[in-house]
Amino acid sequence: MPITLNRRMLVGLCAATLAGVASADGGTVKLVVGFPAGGSADLLARAVSDKLATALGSTVIVENRPGGGSIIGVDHVAKAEGDGHTLLFATAAPFVINPYLNPRLPYEVADFAPVSKVATYSMVLAVSPRQPWRTMQEMVAYGKANPGALSYASAGNGTSNHLAGELLQSLTGLRMMHVPYRGNAPAMTDVIAGNVSMMFDMPATTLPHMQSGRIQLLGSTSTTRNPLVPDTPTIAEQGVAGFDVTSWFGVFVPKATPEPVVHRLSAAIGEVLNDPGLVAKLNAVGYEVASTTPAALAATIGEEGKVWSDVISQADIRLE
């Protein structure tokens, strides 16, 4: 006997089938990271991948595709099949910073469907105890009284610590010299030596220097105090109104991925991030879990893109 499906039955069957692609079909899901193994993005992706495999009922592997400041990995996912088997694990930069720094990117933000945030993190402003100030107010006053005396280090042009310095200048009226390095480690070495006035960096990597007395912290970059350094006031609460540099890691899929698959993946990530053990593990190294809906992540990209495009335009920042 022939079986007749009405429209509602057909839509329901398709949705169930698509949801299965991203859940329990026994296939392998690749979580692509655009950075080398061992870095912060890679370690965070691996911390999530095992539990995500359980939530999806599939094998989840982390695939590192480094190069071009993550551009190679991002572009790989942009051109992948939208079947729920290739996911991008990325920082905010490819979506809210890079498009305004490099007009010749091989991908566009519109090539992706947002799935969920995974974690957020903030930075701290580190200075050498050799510097003649101990608070943000003293540093700003010193900089205004001594034009050209302040400088700040970064891991390179267009990096998050570079842009944080530009935002600080924009909001305070300071004029500081930007000193780019090839990575955070050599930059911090010169800050410790007093050769550069200051640097924005991750709390987890700055804490050992602070505990040894080689660095002091002037402030944290989010609107709430960082739990790793709760005694360090935020920059905003020290009088720099509007200063907020909070970045994040998130998961994306190619834009052709069906909506039921996107929402199934988002729900699975939310389930993973409710695990108390994982939450404690991430908190211990300065991350806060932050699962979101696809729509909320899309809204975040639009809002943050506007902020950073303005900062980049005003500072006339160009990639080398």
Give a description of the structure.
By secondary structure, the protein is α/β, with parallel strands linked by helices. It folds into two domains: 165 residues, D-Maltodextrin-Binding Protein, domain 2; 115 residues, D-Maltodextrin-Binding Protein, domain 2 (3-Layer(aba) Sandwich), CATH 3.40.190.10. The protein is 42% helix and 19% strand. It has a six-stranded mixed β-sheet with strand order 2-1-3-10-4-11, with helices on both faces. Helix 7 links the parallel strand 6 and strand 7. The N and C termini lie far apart (68 Å). 41% of the residues are buried.
CATH H-level superfamily of the largest domain? Bordetella uptake gene, domain 1
Briefly, what CATH class of the largest domain? Alpha Beta
- Provide the residue-averaged pLDDT: 89
Order of helices and strands: HEHEHEHHEEHEHEHEHEEHHEH
Q: Helix tally?
A: 12
The coarse overall form would be globular
Instruction: Note poorly predicted spans.
Output: 1-24
**Strand order of the biggest β-sheet:** 2-1-3-10-4-11
Which CATH-level-2 architecture of the largest domain? 3-Layer(aba) Sandwich
Give the termini separation.
68 Å
**What composes the largest sheet?**
6 strands, mixed
What is CATH's topology name of the largest domain? D-Maltodextrin-Binding Protein, domain 2
Subunit organisation of the chains: single chain
The structure class reads alpha/beta
> What's the structural domain tally?
2
- Share of helix, binned: 40-55%
Q: What is the CA-based Rg, rounded? A: 22 Å
The proportion of residues in beta strands is 15-25%
Q: Give the beta-strand count.
A: 11
